[in-house]
Amino acid sequence: MSGSLPFYQKHHRHYDRGYHSRETDATVSKYQSSYAARSSSSSTSRGLRASSYSGLEESRLSPVPKRAKPTYLAVDKENQIIGYVVPIFRGSQEFATGLSDTEEARMKETAAYMAQRDLFTSGVEMERSQQTSRRVAMRESAERISLKKRIHENEEYHKRMNEDSLMHAPQFVITPRSHTVWEKQCVRLHCTVTGWPEPRVVWYKNNVTLDPLSHPGKFKIESSYSVHSLEINRCDFDDTAQYRVSAMNSKGELSAFASVVVKRYKGEFDESFPSPRHGLVSEYGITFQTHIVNTFGVSFGREGETMSLGCTVIIYPALHRYQPEVQWYRDDVLLTPSKWHHMHWSGDQATLTLTHLNKEDEGLYTLRVTTKSGYETYSAYVFVRDGDAEMEGAPGSPLDVRCLDANKDYVIVTWKQPAVDGCSAILGYFVDRCEVGTKHWIQCNDTPVKFARFPVTGLVEGRSYTFRVRAVNKSGLSPPSRVSEPVAAMDPADRARMRGTSAPWTGQIIVTEEEPAEGVVPGRPRELQVTEATKNYVVLSWMPPGERGHEGIMYYVEKCVSDTDSWQRVNTEIPVKSPRFALFDLAEGKSYSFRVRCCNSAGVGEPSDPTEATTVGDKLDIPSPPGRVVPTRNTDTSVVISWEASREAKELVGYYIDGSIVGSGVWEPCNNKPVKGTRFICHGLKTGETYVFKVRAVNAAGLSECSQESEPIEVKAAIASPAPPYGISVLECVRDSMVLGWKQPTFIGGADITGYFVDYREVVDGVPGKWHEANIKSVSERAYRVSDLKENRKYQFQVRAANMAGVGIPSLPSKTFLCEEWTIAVPGPPHDLQITEVRSDSMVLLWKPPVYQGRDEVNGFYIDIKEAHAPEEAWRGVNTKATDKKYMKIKNLKEAETYVFRVRAQNKAGVGNASEPTEPTLAQTKPGTKEIVVDVDDDGVISMNFECSDLTPDSKFVWSKNYEEITDTSRMTVETKGTKSKAIFNTPGEDDIAIYSCIVTHTDGASSSYTLSEDELKKLLAMSHDHKFPIIPLKTELAVELQEKGRVRFWLQAEKISANGKVDYVFNDNVLSQGEKYKMNFDKNTGVIEMTMECLTAEDEGTFTFQLQDGKATNQSSLVLIGDVFKELQKESEFQRKEWFRKQGPHFVEYLSYEVTPECCVILKCKVGNIKKETAALWYKDGREIKADEHLSFTEGVLKLEIAQISKKDSGVYEVVLKDDRGKDTSTLNLTDQGFKDLMNEVFSVIANSSTPLKITSTDEGIRLYTFVSYYNELLQVTWHYKDSAIAFSDRIKSGVVGEQLWLQIKEPTEKDRGKYAIEFHDGKDGLRRTVELAGQAFDDAFAEFQRLKAAAIAERNRARVAGGLPDVVTIQEGKALNLTCNISGDPVPEVTWLKNDREMVSDDHYILKFESGKFASFTITTVNTSDSGKYSILVKNKYGTESGEFTVSVFIPHEGGSKKK
User: Fold this and answer.
1) Rounded distance between C-alpha atoms, residue 1238 and residue 1344, angstroms
2) Each residue of 845-865: b (16+ CB within 10 Å) or e?
3) How confident is the model at residue 621 (pLDDT cuts 50, 70, 90)?
C-alpha cells in the first residue's frame, strides 16, 4: 500500500504510523538543525510556533523564495489539495490570531479537524534575524490591507454559497483490503469515506446486506469520523466471500470490494462447522452456471409512463449465502440508482424500474450477472415515444440537456434536437433555469435559438441551478425536456478543490506565513480565443495572467469591428470574474476582433493580444444528408437499417431514422434518441406490411435533410442457416454401425430444414481424430445409421442442419460412444420427442419408436413427467398401462407450470431405457389460440376448419390423422386459403374415425386436434343428410282453431320460406282448391299458411294435410279429425255459431254470479252488452219478480242486486232477463242447497278473515278469551279448542257471542287450564284458526287479575249499604211524632250511627234509634218541636265499606190561616 495518504488518515488506529517514521524523522531533524539558530533568536509574536509534524515534504516546509509566484493551496505529499493557505506576513500576529479565533468553530465541525490543526502547526515559518527595510515595511502594510480585503470577500463568498455547491459524491480514501485467514481467527475490514452530505455506509456479503442483529456476536460494524470497519468474529468456512462496502448520499453512490478467504489446517475438520455444499467456490474448484430466463423483450413506452424490465436469473449450484453481482447498463453505460432508475434484486429476479420515462431513457439495456466463474448478459432495446402534445402540431421535447464549462457567472447548456418537429419546422429553443431549492423557472433567452447550445449568463456565484429546454414551432411550444443535473456557478479551480479526491471542501483557511508582496497591476490575459461562434452569440475564453498580485482579478472585454481601430468595451459597468464571456447582440455577417484587460485594486492592466477577425455566424454547419439507405430483413416485426455516414459532418450527435408504410404518406420516427453508428434495428413494425425508410443526421447546428428513401421492403423474418442440432444420442449399435438420434435446432433460420449432415471421428486414447463425412446426401429424418465403423472403437459425432439458406454450423461434438453390438433384451430408447397443442391444462406428446427392438417387438410405451425445476427423483408415470400409440395427450396439468417428458418402450422382456427428456414446456394457452371447428355446409359436405392469424410467408398447414401426415387424398381433400385451411371428408365413413390434427409450420407452435368418434360421426352424417335433403323447418305443426261465428281455421307456420315456396292443401288424399267452402291464404313474409271453413259437416271428418315445397326443401304436416275429436270440434263450432247469433241482441257478457264484500254484504251481479235505452232488465227469485228498489242498480253495463244481511230466507233461484225488440237473454243463479252453502261458506270466510287475534282478559268470575269480527252471522259455525282438542262446554267453561265479540269464559280457572286455546271458523274449506297461549306469564297475569276482580266484586257485594226508605226532606208539624225506617244491608252486619248536624245522636226518650234483625234501622222523634229541625244522616259501616243516607227535617208551627216553618 502506498504511503501517500491524506493527512487526516495518518493517525487512524489501523494505519501503521511507523511506516513513514524513518523518512519523516530524518526530514524533521534536517529541518530543525538548519534553522536552529534562527528559531532560537526569533520573536514568537511574529509567527506561529510548530507543535507537531503533519507529514508534508521538506519542500513544503521551506519558506517561499522572495517574489516567487505565491500559492494559496495546502497539499499533501501526493500533491492532493486539502485546503486554503492564507499567508501571514511579518508583523501580522494580531490579525492572524483573530482569524484563528473566528474560524475555530467552523474548523471543529469537520471530520479532519485534528489533522488540519497539525498542518497549521507544521507550517510554521522560521523567524528571520535581519531587520526589515522601509520598503519591506511598506509592502507589508499593503499586503495586510489586501489580505483584509480578500478575507472579507471570502466571508461574503461563503454567505452566498449554496449548500448544493459544497456537495459531492462519496469517495473512498482508503479502500478495504482482502484477507486470507485461518479458521477461528478474527478479521477486520477498514475503509475511509469522504463525501458531503455525510455518506451512509452499508456492508454486504455476496451482495446480501449484513445485519449484525441477525448474527449476534458474529459481525460487528463500527463508524467513527469517516472511518468504517467490519469485524468478523471466529471466521469459519462460510465466511469465505466477497465483501462490499457501499457509501451513498444524495449526490451518488460508490462501492469498494474486498475478499475474505478462510483456510483450514490440513487434516483438521471440526464437525461443528457445516460442510460446504456443492463443493467450494470458484477458487476452490466450483464453477457457477448462470442462466438468464423469463427475459424482457423489445419494449415500447411513452414519456411520463413507468416501465419495469425484469429477468429471472438461475445460478447453479445454488449456494444459500452466495449472491452474484447484478448490474444494469444502458448503451454500455453503467446505471446507478437514482430517482429515474430503481434497481431491485430479490435473489432470483433482477428488476429495473424506469420511474418516469423520458427519451433519454431510450437505448439498449443490458443486464449483466457476474459470478466468480464469469458473467452472463442479456440485452434488449427500449423505445420511448413522445408523450401527448399539449398543443396539436407542437414539436416533441428536446432531450439530453447537459451543462458544460460552468464558471462563476455563466454556463453553457447543450441538448439534442427531438426527432418529431410537429406539423412545421422547429423555429428554435427556449432555455429555462431554476435555482436549486426553488420551483421557479426563469426563461433565459427572449428569442428562440436554433443552435443546440446556449451560454446562460447572469448566474449568482456559488448558487446551483438546473436547466431545461423547450422547442417551438408555428403551432406552439413542446413539453419541457427532462431537467439537467444541478451545476454550481463557481470557478472550476474552486470546484476542483471542493470536489478533490483527498478531502471534501471544509471551508477552512490554513494560515501560513509568506514573503510579502506589493500591490501589482495584473498582466495581460493569455491565450485569448473564440471558442464558439454562432449568429446569436460569440464565446471567448482565455487564461489568467501570470502576474496578478495576491488579490483577485476581474476582466473587461472589448470588441472592435474589423478594419477599424475603434475598440469598444462590452461590459462597461460590471467586470466579469471568470475567464469566459459570451457576447450577444452582434451584427450577423460582420467581422469582429476581441481583446481582454485584467483589473484589480491597483488598476487596469494592458490588453491581451486581439483575436483574429471573427465573422458573426454559425461556424458549425448542418451535416449533409446521409448516403444510401439499405434495409434488410430481420424478424417478422423488425428491419435492419444501414446507411452511409454523412460526409464531413462535424460534431455529429447521431442519426434519426423514419419509416413509412408504402402508400400511406405518414412518416413515423423509428428512434427518438439519436443513434451513433450507421446501423440500427427498427422494431415495432407490422408483419407483412411494406415499408420505406429515410435517415437524418443531427449535430448542434440542427438536423440534416433527409436521405433518399430506401428500397421498399416487406417486414418478415429473415432467412438464415439453421442453428446446430443438439442432444445427440445412440439409438442402436451393432458391430460396424451405430444409429444416432438428435433434436431439431432451436432456430431453423426462417425456412424449413431440408436435411441433416452427420460427421464422425475416432477417439484414440482420449485424443480425437479428424472428422469424416458420414453421409454425402442429406437425410430428412432426425435419425441416421453411420456405417463402416470398427468394432470396439470409440467415436464422436456432430450434426449440421441445412435449409435453403445453406448448411449451418455443426453441433458440439457428442459424447464418446463405444461401437459394440447391443445384446440387451429390452428395447432401446424412443427418440424424436415432440410437444404440440400446448394448452393451460394439457399438451400432446409425440415420439418415434426405438430403433433397437430388443429380443422381441415393442408392444407398448410408458410416459414419464416431472416439473422442469424438480430433481431427478420427481419423475412420475403418466400412464399405468402401456399404450400402443405413438402419441398421448397429457391432461390435468397445472397452469403456468413448466414440464419435461420422457418415454420408455417395453417388450416381453421388460421396459427399456428412457428417451432423452424434452425441452421444458410451459403449460399455458397462448393468446389468439384457436381450435379445429367441424362444419357441414349446405350441400352436406363435412369439413374440419382451422385458422391461424400468426402466419409467416413460409407457413404451411399440415394435417395429420392419428398424428401421421395425411398423404392419401382419396378420403380427404385439403384446401388452404389465406389464414384458413379446410380438410374435407370425401366419403365419410367408419374408416375416418380417428384423431385429426393440424400444425402450422413457422409459427410459435400453432396447432390443434379434433377427435372424430363413432357417435360424433353419426351426428355429422345426420346433419349432412339434412343438408343434402333439406326440410323446411316449421315453427308450429298443423293445428285447428275456432274463430268468430264458429268458423274453423286450419293453420301452421314455417320458420323460413322463400317467395318461391308452394303449398298443396290435401283432404283424404284429395287436393283442395279455393272456393266457397275453403278459403286459403299463404303469407310468405311470416310463413303462416291457413285454410278456413264456415262450419263442419259430417262429410268433413277425415285427415287434413298441408304439403310445402321450397326449392329442394320439402315438408308436410297433417291433422286427423275423426271420431270423438271431430264430434267435439263440430259441437264447439255449432255452439260458437249460436253464441254469435245470441250476441247480436242484448246479452250477458258475464253471467249472473255473486260477490261477498268485506262488510259481508252479498252482491249478485252480471255484465251485459249490446244494450240500449229500451232494453229492460228484470230480476226474479223463485219465479217471482223482485220489485225494483234502492238495492237494484245498473251502471256501466253491470247489473247488481245487494243482499245486506243474508240469512236462510234469502235462499232461492235468482234469474235476470234482458229483453228488447232485438231479442232477450236469460241468466240464472241457483242459491239453494249446495249453492246456498257455497255462498254462506264464502261469507263465513270473509267473517273469519276479519277476526282479530285472540286476546285474554280477566273478569270477577274467571278468564275470558275473545275475538272480534266485522260482522256476525247466526249461521256462522265456530269451534273452540284446548290443546288441539275441541272443548266440551260445561257450567265452568262456556262460550257465547256479544255483538261482534265471540268469547270463551273459564270460571274459577286452575293450573289445569294452562295451555294453548284456539277458535276455528268453518267456511267449508280449510277454515281459519286463531290461537293464543294461556300459559306462563300470560296465565299468571290473567289469574292474578281474576283474583283481584273477584275480591273487588265480593267487597262490592258485601259492603255496608243504605238500601232506601229515607226521604230527602221531611216537613212535619210541631207536636207530631216522626218515624222513619230504612233498609240496611251488608255482611258482616254493619254498624249504624245516626247523626244530627254531623254530630252523633244517642237514643233516648225523645229520639228513639233502633236497628233490628240486622236489616232495618228506624228513627223516631216522639214529639217534634222546632229544635228538631236540621240535617240528619245515617252512617252504616262494616269491613268492606261505609255508606251514608241524608235527610232534612223541617218543623212548622200551625197558625191561623197558614203556617210558619222553622
Assistant:
1) 45
2) bbbbbbbbbbeeebeebbbbb
3) confident
The residue type found at 769 is G
Classify 856 as helix, strand or coil. coil
The predicted structure's pLDDT at residue 1190: 38
Q: What ranges in 742-824 are assigned the alpha helix state H?
A: none
The pLDDT value recorded for residue 799 is 95
Q: Are 429 and 472 in contact (CB under 8 A)?
A: yes
Residue type, 586: L
Average pLDDT (902-931) is 93
Rg of the chain over all Cα atoms, to the nearest angstrom = 61
Of all residues in the chain, the percent with pLDDT exceeding 70 is 85
Report pLDDT for 39. 39
Residue pair 940/1025 in contact (Cβ under 8 Å)? The answer is yes
**Phi, psi of 751, deg, nearest 5:** -145, 155
Answer yes or no: is pLDDT of 506 > 80: no
Instruction: Give the per-residue pLDDT at 318.
Output: 80
- CA angle, residues 359, 362, 367, in degrees to nearest 5: 145
DSSP string computed for 51-109: -S-----HHHHSPPPTTPPP--EEE-TT--EEEEEEEE-TT-HHHHHHHHHHHHHHHHT
Nine cell digits for residue 1273: 252471522
By the 10 Å C-beta count (0-12 exposed, 13-18 middle, 19+ buried), 1137 is classed as middle
Whether pLDDT at 673 is above 70 = yes
In whole angstroms, give the CA distance from residue 659 to residue 666: 8
Helix (H, G, I), strand (E, B) or coil at 940: coil
Give this prediction's pTM: 0.45
| DSSP β-bridge partners for residue 583 | 538
Q: Is the pLDDT of residue 1065 over 90?
A: yes
For the segment 232-254, the average pLDDT, to the nearest whole number, is 88
pLDDT digits (tens, 9 = 90+) for 438-449: 889 999 998 899
- Give CA–CA dist 703/701, Å, rounded: 7
pLDDT classification of 57: cutoffs 50, 70, 90:
very low
List CB contacts of 1288: < 8 A, sequence separation 6 or more.
none
Q: For CA atoms 816, 821, 825, 830, give the dihedral sign.
A: positive
222 residue type, one letter: E
Question: In this predicted structure, what is the pLDDT of residue 949?
Answer: 86
Dig out the grid coordinates for 1193 from the structure: 242498480
**What angle (nearest 5°) sits at the alpha carbon of residue 93, between those of residues 91 and 97?**
160
Three-class secondary structure of residue 662 per DSSP:
coil
Give the pairing of strands 299-302 and 374-385.
Answer: parallel
In sequence order, the β-bridge partners of residue 560 are 567, 593
Task: For the beta carbon of residue 429, count every other beta carbon within 10 angstroms.
Answer: 26
Beta bridge partners of 1009: 997
Of 442, 990, 450, nearest in space to 703 by CA: 450
Largest CA distance in the chain: 189
Provide the grid cell at 1092. 278456413
The answer to whether 684 touches 637, Cβ cutoff 8 Å, is yes
Least trusted range by pLDDT, from 565-569, 957-961, 1263-1267 = 565-569
User: 1289 by DSSP, 3-state: which?
Assistant: coil
CB within 8 A of 873, min separation 6: which ones? none
Which residues are CB-contacts of 987 (< 8 A; sequence separation ≥ 6)? 971
Half-sphere exposure for 405 (CA within 13 Å, toward CB): 21
Assigned C-alpha cell, 592:
469582429
What is the structure's pLDDT at 157? 61
CA distance 1271 to 1248: 10
Q: Which amino acid is at 689?
A: E
Q: Do the Cβ atoms of 1235 and 1229 come closer than 8 Å?
A: yes
- Give the Cβ contact number of residue 1294 at 10 Å: 17
